[in-house]
């Protein structure tokens, strides 16, 4: 496993600084008869982080989340959530956790507001007098006020997702877990979810997001955990993960053919991308690349350090499996 966070030693060989964790697993394993769904997962969720969980179909993300929340008992291993052992101490941890896992489930013949009232009545930290205000606030936060009195069975998939998110936000939480929160949402709804996640992060709430939309994870998350074949293959800060690939320089020039030919003659791997010529810096430096191009008479309009996209990192870590719209469940 590639770990880019608290378990990585410092350059001097000493131990890294301690990081407060909102959740952690050690040796987590789950078997369904002879099928291994999760295999020795060691996961760290830093307090206050927005952690994106990524993985191809069958990678174990949803099963890991369910064990993290105490919905499924592990076959082996340890789970700790907000300092409490799960699932035995779920009653102590879960009041501080809001979750939307594998899609919302509500009574179809009740309205959105009535469904939330029923859930709010079960919240241990909401008094009866506080329920109407909490429900109205949650509906407004997910922009569902106008449809609050419609029956749930008439909701679109996106509206059902919004109501599920509203249920997770009925009371202030220390941690929010969202499984595919933008499923069924249009671009405007996706932006609203992104805004809510940003607000939760700004207020110090820890957020765990499972998503197959790599662009959304890259836009909203501070940390990433990549699962493959039931185990964590990489985890840590998003910036570190994006910078973990081969260094490269992006060069903008009108003469792309000559630029690539010149660089390859100098044994510098290069290729044409939508952003420009991507020159590999594994065996050379940026000044050397630019000097070679200029001496060859190649006009250089712009040059900047290339950033590895999350899709490229994801494909590399999952053995170059295709990234499609269903990846990550």
Automatic annotation (TrEMBL):
State which residue ranges cross the membrane: none
The segment(s) forming the ABC transporter domain are 23-254
Recorded hits in InterPro entries, A to Z, give:
AAA+_ATPase, ABC_transporter-like_ATP-bd, ABC_transporter-like_CS, P-loop_NTPase
Q: Which UniProt keywords apply?
A: ATP-binding, Nucleotide-binding, Transport
Domain of life of the source:
Bacteria
GO MF assignments: ATP binding; ATP hydrolysis activity
Q: Which Gene3D superfamilies match?
A: P-loop containing nucleotide triphosphate hydrolases (3.40.50.300)
Does the entry feature the keyword Nucleotide-binding, yes or no? yes
Q: Which Pfam families match?
A: ABC_tran
Q: Does the keyword RNA-binding apply?
A: no
In which family does this protein belong, per the annotation?
Belongs to the ABC transporter superfamily.
Query: By what name is this protein known?
Result: ABC transporter ATP-binding protein
What is the species of this protein? Amycolatopsis suaedae
Taxonomic path = Bacteria, Bacillati, Actinomycetota, Actinomycetes, Pseudonocardiales
């Amino acid at each position: 496993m590639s770990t880019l966070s608290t378990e990585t030693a410092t350059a001097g060989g000493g131990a890294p600084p301690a990081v407060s964790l909102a959740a952690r697993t050690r040796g987590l394993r789950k078997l369904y008869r002879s099928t291994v769904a999760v295999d020795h997962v060691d996961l760290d969720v830093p307090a206050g982080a927005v952690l994106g969980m990524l993985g191809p179909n069958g990678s174990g993300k949803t099963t890991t989340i369910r064990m993290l929340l105490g919905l499924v008992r592990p076959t082996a291993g340890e789970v700790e959530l907000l300092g409490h052992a799960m699932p035995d101490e779920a009653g102590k941890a879960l009041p501080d956790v809001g979750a939307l896992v594998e899609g919302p489930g509500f009574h179809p013949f009740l309205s959105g507001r009535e469904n939330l009232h029923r859930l709010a009545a079960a919240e241990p930290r909401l008094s009866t007098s506080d329920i109407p205000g909490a429900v109205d606030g949650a509906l407004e936060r997910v922009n569902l006020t106008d449809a609050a009195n419609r029956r749930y069975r008439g909701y679109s998939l996106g509206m059902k997702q919004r109501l599920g998110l509203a249920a997770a936000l009925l009371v202030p939480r220390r941690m929010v877990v969202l499984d595919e929160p933008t499923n069924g949402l249009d671009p405007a709804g996706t932006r609203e979810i992104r805004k809510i996640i940003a607000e939760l992060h700004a207020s110090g709430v820890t957020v765990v997001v499972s998503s197959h939309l790599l662009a959304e994870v890259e836009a909203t998350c501070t940390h990433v955990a990549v699962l493959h074949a039931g185990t964590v293959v990489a985890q840590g800060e998003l910036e570190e993960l994006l910078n973990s690939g081969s260094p490269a320089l992006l060069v903008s020039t009108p003469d792309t053919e000559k630029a690539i030919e010149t660089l390859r003659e100098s044994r510098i791997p290069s290729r044409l991308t939508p952003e420009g010529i991507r020159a590999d810096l594994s065996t050379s430096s940026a000044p050397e690349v630019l000097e070679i191009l200029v001496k060859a008479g190649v006009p250089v309009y712009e040059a900047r350090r290339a950033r590895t996209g999350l899709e490229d990192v994801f494909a590399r870590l999952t053995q170059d499996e295709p990234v499609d719209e269903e990846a990550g469940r």
